[in-house]
Structure prediction request, 282 residues.
Amino acid sequence: MTPEQIDDVLRRALAEDAPWGDATSEAFLPAGAPAIAVLAAREAGVLSGIEVFARTFTLIEPTAEVELLAVDGDRFAPGAELAIVRGSARSVLRAERVALNLAQRMSGIATQTARYVDAVAGTRARVVDTRKTTPGLRALERHAVRNGGGHNHRFSLSDAVLAKDNHLAVLQAQGIGLGDAIRSVRARLGHTTHLEVEVDRIDQIEEVVSAGVDTIMLDNFTPEQLVEGIAVVAGRALVEASGGVSLETVAAIAATGVDVISVGALTHSVRALDLGLDVRVG
Prediction:
């Protein structure tokens, strides 16, 4: 998550939220009135996006001061003070909603990720995200996953070769054998390009692994099927479990011995964490 990525997201969000200024603050508040506001937790969680939160205020008012009382990855209790903002009242209130929206969502992702990571503790499994992210916010949401102790899958379609069910359906329609296709791709790829193939049946595993993949994704396998699949792979590739993973099922999946568990729910349906920004009076 680079400063340029943060600023790009914030400029678009701020322009959306106040395209012609903040009509309410400009009508009610004196131009020079100062404000001090505190970012506080209203529930327990894991912090993410504190730098994004701070940058929202200084992007609007470069002289604003944001004192950070916690860092990304910190766990906090209800009532914890996470940051103090000092600036003009108009600029603080203009930035408030965008700053909170992003910090709440990112902290929600970090908190959810931490629950999954805690659930698989003591196993070899890595909890990773997917591309099921909010359009335009992937860099921020992936950062939040790391803050929660998780790991990132490929960032984009450009970063690795991952053949999924729809790719395989096209190959089948064209009469191209899966093993032959994998060997052809393997021969053309550079040695640094990761090759992964998704399967949804036990009987597909041998053909895929023997053709030379780096990772095989076992999609929607039960824990019992995962154990069987891992035995077929026999250490010849990394094994990723995917599909329908939840907090209720992730521990059993991890216990099978898979290397990676990809979880779309880390980002696609997470609840924003309850954080508040309150102006101090007196």
Notes: The first strand starts at residue 34 and ends at 41. Residues 267 and 280 are 33 Å apart (CA to CA). DSSP finds ten helices and twelve strands in the chain.
